[in-house]
Request: fold
Amino acid sequence: MAERENSGRSLAAAALATGKSALARSFRLHRPRGAFCHAGWCQQCQTVLPDGSRALACQTPAEAGNVAGLESADPLRAVARIAEKWPPWFWETRMLSPEAARQPWLELLRRMSAAPPLSTSTSGECRPWRRSAADVLIVGGGRAGLVAAMSLALAGRKVLLVEAERLGGIARFLPVERGRVPELASAARRAGAQLREGILCLGLYDGATRALLIGPDGPETVEISSLVVAAGGYDRLPAFRGNDLPGIVGGRAFLRLVAAGALPPAKRIGLYADAAAAPRLIEAARAYGLAWAWIAGPGALPLAAERSHPHRRLRRASGDRCVREVEIDPDLRLGCDLLVLGLSQPAYELQMQAGRRAVLSGDPAAVRTAGPALLPLLELGEATGLADGPDFVSQVEAAVQAWLGDPHGNTPAPQDHVSAEKPDPDAFLCLCEDVRVRDCERAIADGFDHVELLKRRTGAGTGPCQGKLCHAELMACLARAGRNPALPTVRPLLRPVRLDALAGADDGA
Reply:
């Protein structure tokens, strides 16, 4: 059996190990929510700790919280069940007049929401903003980023690589790949690249010539000449009925959970994955001594996979407070206590801030980027939508060398593709704001058929995940209606950040 990546567990992982999937409530409809990403970006597991502070359960050590207190009764859920019948814009069209009653009514709605209270604690620190410069900023310290750092440093470039977590990225949770990470990091350092862990790139400014970073030492701005995005991707949540149920996690989340020993062998685990993700998820489960209850996917699956159902559509997940069963075509019902979705959404935000446009590609469709950028820009690894292969390192090295020869070359645009098959109208398109597919379809039919209008009418894409869960479905909804499948402007900050983390004395730069 493979060695665990680390012995520490998050509060969300500890809860899942005890059979608790519901960790929080959705803001508007008070529906139970669980951690989907277990990496901090989906923002679905916001909870209040015993000391009154507000935190994400998946980013909080298990000993800092109370697992038993995460799942509690909600007296307002009965009222919210009635509100589920109304569109998201019901309140603003009926409850904002007369003007004198507007503020009291909005305050009442705020108090009736399931949003946890804002934390009143602060770090108490005010650190000066730092400044630095690099020829090339590499965002993402997985295998692709490390290989690129070595290649670019050997080519004489001043390279700064930043990784939001620890070097290795998702490879840290893959039994076969994790052992190769130290060697790649050492090779990049020997070549002269600067590698920094625990540093999050929050966005690009000033025509993409400056990047804002945040880390343990406070905020930092970096003047850059070119950008390499090797930031991997996000777990993709497609639109199917019941897709907001606790107990549904992404493939990358599953790798984190099994590496931390958070999944007991007795749990029934179902896998719905595409052909690219299925092999590594199957191998990881085998390495950690876990068995799949069943495996299904929209395309082909590994021949050795047992109880497999290839070329099937995921129609519905059902259960009371968490997932207990899924339905796939044709009318096949499969039981599970945990549903793993091995579908991917490549990282795209920095590319769009650098001037590229969004396109839809794949089935289920995911957001990709294409077109000219404001600065020399290279995408590598999972950020391109490509899976690892046996010649992964040589492919990355070849891509870097080609880019050095033509740094302003445009990325070939992926072929636009949106499935003609409509998802269930009751499927959630935006989990943060409780917006269903039917809500967006109705808004488009009412004339809110530009992405910015649709966002303002429904609230889709305005929640704390900042569109990472819903942007692809939002674009697909517009495309199916024959409208332009664009995205709202992707602005910094790319992740929610506490204001006191940015508090400091900027020197005017």
Remarks:
- The first strand starts at residue 24 and ends at 25.
- The longest helix spans residues 392-405.
